[in-house]
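> example.struct
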């Protein structure tokens, strides 16, 4: 469901500088690379495997079913994994705060396991009114840095701190960016009224198919991991939830432009800044709001849903998105109160943020019915699923088909034109394309990689490459031992492994990947924060990354075609300090 690539070989330089591995050079490591069923992911995995084979490094590939893959990666039961991140809102912090030690999206395992007690990181926040830390743990440095970013209201200082955070992430070598995403899908030319947003969510409420509004057949992905708004962390799941729920705000297309507008709220009000710097918003719900079962939707449903989603008991991956609200992570209650009689929801933020309205439109901020508070099974079957959006789940044949039917209790039901959305469940791109070509499915969210060139030519009006703010990358488990025979102390060893991971990233030809493997119009990436994110001065954030290094290229390495040979030579030089390489002739 939510959409990844990163490698691990940056340990080398420091290792040699301090004495290399025990007994001299080590044998090259055998790496296990996990990915999920998808032709494009498989093709990229095979390319990475061959790139490492060229220097004598063995990489075994393991293709896992989607939900198994997510859990394997989340639990840190891997060495190297496919990964990708798509923005939740247009602010670089959504790429950076996922790597705090307590984040549910911290697949690299920063600050977890053996890495939890490793004291080797330093930050100096004295310029920004904070402390200077020398050789602290990840929690004492990176977590503190992210917290500082979230409490800084001066734009220039805040963006400077975010660049500092990306510098710290990229220095670990645990994130190997491959390319900046595009949203590739196919849509039948008889479909009108469709739109998507930069996060990859797709909207079918006002579509017609050949002028008809009775049904549209789509295939977004396989069986969703969850359709609980608080627990979802996938793009296809978010698309489903955007049709099933109505939050205080929503994405809409107004006069051809995408924007955030009020939904369950009467209006998106401006916040009131308090004497202590906190900001209070008070929203009034529209009259006549109902749940799909006919129950009245109350302001307290929002309050309870937000507190549930933010709770440590639920342990939601996106629970940290409520960090912006006063009281989160403290002994205080989350600063959200509801008045059912007045139909108001009052929320106080710790400080002013520019992307608050976008958070309100994010699935994690959707309300849930009171039945969700007492059961973890409510969101698994059609007959127990209660929602408040444009559609209800009419039927759910697991691993086959979810049918959405227009919700007659939805307050804006009259504005919803499409009566039924049939969401077929598949992760087989060939199956998707077959059904699209037959005219059975009107939208598919994946295509076979080896068919892309022909599809661009034969289906020029139906093959879509849309903009999307995201980065496809490889991630390394920070606790995976790249130098098992080393007798270095823990800090020196990790410093060496950082260098090794970075060197491994230089072995990859990103231009070959986007032009010959993925072929979806992607852009080679040299930063983790994706292109499309703005900086304090209105320029693109990624173009200002690592500027202090004074390089003549953008980002943390030169991703141009011309630089590739030099990158490989540099990588081999580094890796040769630690391993007995077997270079392919």
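> example.seq
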């Amino acid at each position: 469901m939510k959409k990844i690539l990163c490698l691990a070989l940056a340990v080398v330089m420091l290792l040699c500088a301090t004495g290399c591995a025990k007994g001299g050079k080590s044998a090259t490591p055998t790496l296990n690379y996990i990915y999920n069923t998808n032709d494009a992911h498989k093709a990229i995995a095979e390319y990475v495997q061959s790139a490492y084979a060229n220097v004598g490094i063995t990489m075994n590939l393991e293709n896992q079913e989607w939900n198994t893959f997510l859990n394997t990666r989340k639990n840190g039961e891997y060495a190297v994994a496919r990964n990708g991140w798509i923005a939740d809102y247009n602010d670089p912090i959504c790429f950076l705060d996922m790597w705090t030690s307590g984040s549910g999206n911290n697949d690299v395992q920063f600050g977890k396991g053996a890495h939890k007690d490793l004291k080797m990181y330093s930050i100096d926040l004295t310029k920004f009114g904070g402390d200077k830390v020398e050789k602290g743990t990840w929690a004492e440095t990176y977590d503190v840095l992210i917290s500082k970013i979230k409490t800084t209201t001066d734009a220039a200082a805040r963006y400077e701190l975010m660049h500092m955070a990306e510098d710290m992430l990229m220095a670990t070598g645990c994130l190997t960016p491959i390319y900046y995403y595009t949203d590739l899908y196919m849509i039948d030319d008889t479909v009108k009224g469709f739109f998507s947003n930069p996060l990859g969510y797709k909207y079918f409420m006002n579509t017609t198919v050949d002028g008809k509004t009775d049904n549209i057949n789509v295939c977004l992905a396989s069986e969703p991991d969850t359709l609980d708004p608080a627990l979802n962390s996938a793009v296809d799941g978010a698309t489903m939830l955007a049709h099933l729920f109505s939050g205080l705000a929503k994405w809409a297309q107004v006069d051809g432009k995408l924007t955030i507008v009020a939904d369950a709220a009467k209006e998106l009000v401006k916040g009131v800044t308090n004497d202590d710097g906190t900001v209070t918003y008070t929203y009034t719900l529209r009259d006549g709001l109902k749940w799909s079962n006919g129950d009245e939707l109350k302001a307290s449903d929002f309050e309870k849903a937000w507190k549930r989603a933010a709770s440590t008991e639920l342990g939601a991956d996106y629970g940290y998105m409520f960090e912006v609200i006063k009281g989160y992570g403290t002994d205080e209650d989350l600063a959200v109160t509801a008045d059912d009689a007045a139909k108001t929801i009052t929320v106080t933020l710790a400080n002013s943020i520019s992307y608050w309205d976008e958070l309100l439109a994010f699935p994690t901020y959707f309300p849930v019915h009171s039945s969700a508070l007492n059961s973890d099974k409510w969101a698994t079957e059609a007959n127990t699923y209660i929602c408040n959006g444009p559609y209800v789940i009419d039927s759910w044949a697991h691993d086959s088909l979810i049918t959405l039917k227009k919700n007659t209790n939805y307050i804006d039901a009259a504005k919803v034109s499409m009566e039924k959305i049939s969401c077929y469940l598949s992760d087989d791109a060939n199956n998707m394309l077959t059904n699209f070509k037959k005219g059975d499915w009107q939208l598919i969210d994946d295509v076979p990689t080896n068919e892309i060139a022909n599809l661009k030519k034969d289906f020029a009006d139906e093959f879509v490459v849309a903009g999307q703010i995201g980065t496809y990358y490889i991630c390394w488990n920070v606790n995976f031992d790249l130098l098992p025979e080393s007798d270095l102390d823990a800090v020196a060893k990790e410093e060496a492994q950082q260098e090794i991971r970075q060197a491994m990233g230089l072995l990859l030809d990103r231009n070959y990947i986007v032009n010959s493997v993925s072929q979806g119009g992607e852009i080679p990436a040299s930063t983790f924060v994706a292109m499309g994110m703005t900086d304090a001065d209105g320029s693109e954030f990624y173009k200002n990354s690592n500027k202090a290094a004074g390089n003549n290229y953008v980002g943390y390495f030169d991703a141009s075609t011309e630089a590739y040979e030099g990158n490989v030579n540099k990588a081999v030089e580094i890796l040769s300090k630690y391993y007995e390489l077997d270079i392919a002739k």
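> remarks
The radius of gyration is 24 Å.
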